[in-house]
Amino acid sequence: SEDIYILAVETSCDETAASVVRNGRDVLSNVISSQIDLHKQYGGVVPEIASRKHVEKINPVIHEALEQSKISLQDIDAIGVTYGPGLVGALLVGLSAAKALAFAVKKPLVGVHHIEGHISANYIENKEFTPPFVCLIVSGGHTHLVHVKDYGEYEILGKTRDDAAGEAYDKIARAIGLGYPGGPKIDRLAKEGNPNAIDFPRAYLEDGSFDFSFSGLKSAVLNHLNRCKMMGEEINDRDIAASFQQSVIDVLVSKTVAAAKETGVDKIAMAGGVSANTALRKAMQEACGQENIFFQCPSPILCTDNAAMIGCAAYYEYIKGVRHGLDLNAVPSLKL
Ligand code: KG4
Ligand code: ZN
Fold it and tell me: Does ligand 1 come within 6 angstroms of the Cβ of 273?
């Protein structure tokens, strides 16, 4: 048949994931085995533990993804896999499994950039959504503002100079005793707080810059906490969560809208774990509405790490003729 089936594998951080995707946009299965409960007790992802858990889960997860899709390995056209960026030991588990399968069943291998996967998550639920657009990628490891000119054609407009947005969420959550991962917890707590209660700084940087910086905000929140403790004042964690989040959102939204205007595109997309944030989604939607910009964002399950987005990205690489050899190596700091 004309249909193209990609089996995709993703193990760059703490999710062991596999998926079967038809023609880039139809997800036939999307299996995710999360290690969050394992890493929680350490307050963050422990790389060595992540690698070991991936080794344990990778074959069952791939098997489950194939079974749910009802597509046999023989009918798969290519195997897509994340080869960077990410934790090297974690990446190597998925990459080795994908290479072994590609060799065993004589199918082509297509290596995928993790961020390209996140961006591609926007193609899955909205079949009409196509480049060009501006995409804000906000995750635990990355904060990028990218002009997506075409499939696989990216221009980075800006990125964080220090912490990633998700990293800031996780650090603030830890400081106010919420535990890991902090993003979803701050999201929930902020709903009960006043976003204007505390005037935390907003780092817009130089005029016209599309870069980000969250370390100053992080310090300001930590200083606020220390001051409250020293003065014996009550710590209102709801107001802190809401005010911190508002500072992050104000900067993310205004820079993304400014980037769309400057590049002249009329579509904005978001991707990555932090784009699951309810207040950010609402604020971006409102700002886009005011500027007559179309706003697209994946369902929360496709915002955080998954293999369906890797299958989607691999498809567009595959139809362009991209193939990788079995000597493909993991690249922890792979550039987009
Ligand atoms: O994309 P992702 O699953 O993994 C990386 O590639 O990093 O992103 C994980 C990050 C974590 O920092 C987590 O706290 C954050 O996304 N996150 C959120 C929300 N859900 C996950 N941050 C804010 N609000 C959320 N609802
Ligand atoms: Zn990610």
Answer: yes
